[in-house]
Fold:
Amino acid sequence: MKLYVSNGDESVRMFKNDFLELLSHVHPSVPAILYLPVVAWMFYRSIEFGLSLYYVFALFVIGVLIWSFTEYILHRFVFHFIPKSGWGKKIHFMFHGVHHDYPNDSTRLVMPPIVSIPLAVAFYFGFMNILGAHYLPPFFAGFIAGYLAYDLTHYAVHHFSLHGKIILYLKQHHMRHHYMDPDNNYGVSSPMWDFVFGTYLKRQKQESATAQR
Structure:
């Protein structure tokens, strides 16, 4: 199917095919609807396996941390990888380029299920091979909770009026990535890995007006 861009103030049409176009738009509630039951099921499985609360809590926290690292790696090395081929450039635009070109498109701020579900399945079985069935559930609950935090934070920093210090800090951190330097500030739900890998863009004395909205 031919990929094309139809300009608009708030949204952009990418596909001539209506079905493909529909799949590219996602309401921000969709990730929570899909994945909160997964988190609950993973906790239930943890109880079934008889894991202590200490192990459940520890593995959950590790899962969240591993997600935050995965988020950073995906954003920096996958979403910001610029292919040379024409087809590769179209794929890149579909996955992330459209967000940078049209950051106020509210229906393209969370990951489409057609992408997130296969990725979740792949991660699940990959972690299964590492941790085994016994320790996987609380870890995967944390991993998916981290993903939900990422998707919902990403939507919030673009479309909510934010006043809390932490969420406002995350908004400013992400807006610098959009409007000052796309090669820095890759973390969305946390700036931790930007500090670790030297991609943290320090606050400037005068930031763009857009970043202050």
